[in-house]
Structure formats: structure tokens, C-alpha cells
Amino acid sequence: MTQLVDVCGLSLSIGKGGREIVRNVSFTVAPGEIVGIVGESGSGKTQAARAIMGLTPPLVRSAGRILFEGEDMAAAGDARLRQLRGARIGMVFQEPMTSLNPSMTVGRQLDEGLALHRPELPPAVRREKALAMLTRVGIADPRAALAAWPHEFSGGMRQRMMLASVMLLEPALLIADEPTTALDALVQRDVLELMVGLTREHNTAVLLISHDLPMVARYTRRMIVMQQGEVVEAGDTDALLAGPKQDYTRKLLEAIPRRQAARTIADGQPIIEARKLVVDYPGKRRLFAKSAAKRVLHGIDLVVRPREIVAVVGGSGSGKTTLGRAIAGLIRPTEGDIRFRGHAIARRDVGWLDYRLNCQMVFQDPYSSLNPRMSIGQLVGEGLRLVPGLTSAERQARVAKMLDEVGLQPQHAQRYAHELSGGQRQRVAIARALIRQPAFVIADEPVSALDVTVRAQVLALLAELQERHGFACLFISHDLGVVEQVADRVVVMQAGRIIEQGSRDEVFDHPQHAYTRKLLSAIPALTPTGQGGMQLRWRFDDADATAPLHPHPLPA
Amino acid sequence: MKKFLTPQALIGLAIVGLILLAAVLAFFWTPHEPLKINFMARLKPPSATYWLGTDEFGRDELSRLMAGASNSVWISFLTVLFSITTGTAIGVLTGFLRGWTDRIIMAFINALLAFPGLLLALALLAVFGANKYGIILALGLAYTPSVTRIVRGTVMSLREKEFIESSRVLGNSELYTMFRHVLPNCVAPLTVLATSMFGWVILAESALSFLGLGVPPPAPTWGNMLAAARPFMAQATYLSIFPGLCIALTLLGINFLGDAVRDLLDPRMRGIE
Predict the structure, then answer these.
(1) Which of A365, A383, A418 sits opposite B268 (nearest CB)?
(2) Beta bridge partners of A491
(3) Among A445, A439, A440, A478, residue whose Cα is nearest residue A459
(4) Do the Cβ atoms of A386 and B271 come within 8 Å?
(5) Do A197 and A346 share a domain, yes or no?
(6) Superfamily (CATH) of domain B7-32+54-269
(7) What is A261-281 written as a DSSP string?
């Protein structure tokens, strides 16, 4: 069988004789096949895939051979490449919020590709095709959607539209670059199912670029593992996961979060206690009136005991971040109260200082949570400013000790945030939060911006520090795998309400609420086989577990 | 420090240094008396005696340019300093406090912005009187609203950053957060603004001179020299060329220097090999 894509010995370097970002990479994609490319940031997976359609950055030079439908892409001129792009090779990007043009209606964006590549079709026919495709991708009112603007839709809906605009041209190859990384679990599942179904219908091959191993395991038959520009390992997905041959693949698999033995948490006075917490976001101010306030939290009751790690999970818009921010004192609750060690924090009396010094927060994005104009030493030491009676020598000693505890070198103190990697920055953020040895830490998606292996390291660090300092933690995350690894207790939120809570094992093994079940069965988990490999398995045993692990028959 | 001395920065430094040197030198020595009128030597082109020629009253152009440098640079510097300081103070305050303080002050600032800057300066000059410090105050106040708007915009976008929240969670006061975390991050847009404002002020001053409201004659500024040269554009082109050249060169130097200072103050630009 002739291959759809045949890449042989592809190398990409920056400038002439510059650094190689992709080295001697070869792979093939058969017509209609789904192939996964897995790797961390900087592994060259995106650039290798983009090279197929000649979309590498201007300074990049390529060597090697790329055949697409038997045609040598290096010999193809710009005009020929433009003919192929869109018509034969489509691409779906990661960020649905920025990949649609905000100043064009959805209808015009859908029409753009058709008008360019199928000019012989009359406008009425193109419109019919666009409508049919929007219906197919599950847009409720396609006629209205054609006239609407991208900002009127949610991230998941936009990704469906992006998919619609690409699939409208029935390309032979779809390059999907982290297509669902920005979406939450349930939406991610829906979009992927749609993508796989749609590409099956048109016999479109998919190159699925991702760092999400369970997802790749579920939707691909063949996968390629890349590291630092080279192919580490490639082959049948199930076999590769069950018996990884290379160290790096093993490292990737080990980095997948897995359940730890349950700990016992001593009963005690709660460290934080939220009672009937209600938060409203004020409505938009109009000329003469105010639109109604939007209620984000509807009476939340939550208790965290000392040394306990409570995870809050839920889809986007469930109010989990708002809950964290309210407990951190960043937003004032509309009703209800929050007590820290028995003192209401709304009253700024004796308990307030204790609360402020002992309740800290680790933010999601290590790129924006560190002031770019302060050195790491200043950032970490800032928390000590408010601790009375410390000499500057004592302060420096504590900063040095803290940096050491989070695994940074003393010389990092003089550096600035931009000089560090994402993982190092998150270590700094953790050091900043922990330097006063708080009794309670709120971690809002602390690892979701990090690469797989770095995520595992940071999680291990958090666990170690938690063991040593014994702080309680409210761990907010949408990543069920991470939650399964770290949490003692799990709180599931939906639309501003807690719908289920219980110990981790209870919630993960015997979910009671329908939404929790849906969340847990959105994507099967990779679980260790015991022989050094991993295999796909549903998270809990019941009716759903009989559902096929691979949702669509994958071509042989 | 090595990074700071790029060729651009060196050129900027050289130009600005030269202008400042000329301005200081003018206090002690000029080739001729800058205010001395000599009708025998009216509108003489550049020669060995008068290196850059003479104006319509026979005053030496080079001497006047040197004396003018101290006036023009001083006026511009103080004006920029004034509007940057007041503008930043108001901008940070409104951007950070928001609410009613912001709305009231911004309504006022927007009303001021609705006037053309020069018109506003003219009105203010009518109050302060046309002298050097009146001009500085008038132009300074006229440019404050634009600084305020830019600073407020920067502050508004900064306050959404997580490091501002992170500072709050640490328990830092709003005032400390403002000075430690917000203000330093406004420096980059401010240096760019300040360097371009320098040019606007020199030109605005010449426009005011043109309208007879600038630094009163016979004291020279580059602006009023340029304005005075206009009727003689055909006979004595050099009279408009030299002050124009001085203004252009100064702006170029200050822009180069401004970029270098901005990079120097930004840790992100340091240590990148």
C-alpha cells in the first residue's frame, strides 16, 4: 500500500549549520490512519509535523525527504504548497480562543477555505455545505451560528467550528496539534470523538500531536515518541505502552500519575472551614441599570483538616477556581463565612494576621505569577518581610534553605524568572508560598502548565514538602490523574455546587453522582500492568467498563 | 554592563553628551556674543568668522544654537520630568484603586485630552505668563493626560497578572504592592513615551514661539530660532537647517539612549547570551 505521508531522514536546523531542532526523523502515515506523536515541549514534534505542509518558521532549513501522496514536498514551490494546504492537508491548532479570527463571522471563516480551493462552487452550494458541516459537528443552531462571531461560543464549540472549517475541504491528512489540551475532560472527549468520527467518514488520516498519553493510547493505533528532535521509539501503540523498550519512553510512562496508598488523617480542629459560601460576580453596568449578578458559588460547605490534601475537581465553569480564590481571601464572599482555625476571616481582628501569614497560594501559571523585575532571591524572601524580628542574615539563610528544599541551587537566587524553565519557576512559586511555613496552602492547577516529566517531579516535590512540613492543602485541578495521585479527599463540583465528596478511593472507585461517573469515564486511564508497561483501563468497574476502549474501529 | 554599550547606545550617548557639553559651554564661552546685534553682518552665509552664518540681526548662528541648547534642553527635560511624574502618580493611583476615584479622575483627564495639547498649553500660558517656567508648567500639564492614560492602561493589564495576586496573598499592603510590583513594570512603556515626548516638547515650544508665546526674545531657543528663520527660508536656508538639524540629532540621540536605558532596567534583557 502506498503511504499518504512518507517522511525520511528529516532534519530541521535554525539557520545554516545552526542548532538542529529535528534530527533524522522518519515516519509514515497510511491513508485514513491515526498516528500519534508524543513528546514534551522542545521535542520537535510540532515542527516535524508542520514541515509536511512547509509551515516551518522562515529561518529553519530542512534536509531529508518528505513525500505527500507520492509528491516530493521539497520540490513543490510555494504556489503548489498553497494549493495543498487546506485542500489536502488541514490543521487544527491547540488554542481555540486564538485560532479563529475574532473579526470574522463563523460563516465567513468556514467559507474562506471553500471559496479559495473550490471556486467552481456557487455561493449557495458552499453555504449549504457549511450548514451541513456545522450540523455534523453538533452546533445547535447552525443557521444562526453562520452569522455569529467566534467570541459568542465556548472553547469546546470553537474547537468544533475549527474542525468543521478544516474538514469542510475533506483533506487527506489532518494535523491536530494538541487539539484538546486547553479543554476540560468532558469537552475534550466530545471533541476527540467528533474528530475521529469525522475523519473516519472522509477517510482522512490524522497526525495527532500530544503529550497526553492516555488520549493517544485511546485514539491511535500507532505512535511515535520524540525527544529533543529525535524519534526515540515508534510502533504499535498498545505494544509500545505495554512494553516500552527505551529509557525515555519508560520515563514518560512512569511520569503518569498513579494512585498512592491511602493515608490516615487524624481528626482535629479544621484548619479551614467554609460555611454556606456564596459568591456573586457583579453584573455588567449598563447606562441606567445593572444586569443581574451572576452567582458562581451556591452555598459551599467545605472543611479541610490539618495535614489533609483535599482536591477540588470539576469542569471549567464549575466554580472551583472561585472557591480557591475566596478561601485565599482574594475575593470577598457575598454570603457565608470562612473560618481559619475557628476565626472568621471577614473580621480583620486577631485571627486575620494568623490567617494571612499561614494561608498561602501557589498559582497555575508560573509565567505570570512571578514578577519579572525581581530576582528569585527577592521573590522568595518577600514573604519574610512581614515576619517580625528577623535580621537580614537570618532572612538570607532561610531563603537559601528554602531554595535548597525545592531543589534549586543557591546561585539561582540572583537569577530572574525568565532565565528559568517552567518547572524551575513553579519550584520558585512553591518556595515563595512555603517560606513562612504556612499551615494551609491553596494550589490552583499548580502543574497543569507543565510538561509530563516535569509535572511528575513537581508533584513529587509537593508531596515531599507536605510530608515534611505537614501543611494542609486545597488542591484545585481538572486533571483526574493528578488528583488520584495526590488527594486524601476529593470534592467534585459542578455549576457552583458540591455534588459529591468523599475519600479518594470512595470517589474514584464508587462514584455516586452521575456527573462524577461521566467525568471519570471521559477517558480511560493508563494503569500499570505490573510488567513495567501500561495498559488502558476504565477507572471503575461497572456498566461503562464494557464500553470499547477504542471508540471507533481503527484501520489495520 | 557590556550589553548596555551597544553601538546604538554609544551613538546616542555621544550625541547627547555633545549637546550637553555645548549647552554647558555656552554659559562660559561662545564664539560670539549670542545676543549682540550687528547690522553690518546681516544674513551672512557660513564663513570663517561666522561658522554657521548670521541671522537677520547679524547675530552669530552657532553662538545662538549653543545658548539655545541650554534653554531648549532644559525646558524639554523639566517638562518631560513634570508630566511623567504627575502622569504616573495619577495613572497608578486611578488604575490601582479603580472605582469612583478612577471614574472621576479619568472623566477629568478625558476632558483634558479632548483639547488639542497646544491649545491647552496656550490657555494655561495665558494664566502663567509667557516665560520659561510658565512654558514648562503649561506644556507639562498639557502632556500629563496622555501619560496618565498610558500608565493607567499598563496598570490595568498588570493588575490581572497573577504576581499581583500573589503579593496580596503574601499579605503585602496595597501601597507596597503598587510600588514594588506595579510601578517597576511600567518603566518600559514610560521610557519609550518619555523619549518621544522630548521631541514633542521641543516642537511644541517652537510652535508657541511662532505664536509669540514662547520664551520671549531675544533669548534663543531652537524652537524660536526655527520660527524666526521662516521668512528667510529662500535667502538664508542655513538658518532653518541648523536648528532643525540640532533638534533632529538630539531626538535621535535621546531615542537611542532611551532604548538602551529601557533594556538596562529590564532584567529580561540581561544575561541573554
Answers:
(1) A418
(2) A312, A501
(3) A445
(4) no
(5) no
(6) MetI-like (1.10.3720.10)
(7) PPPP----S-SEEEEEEEEEE
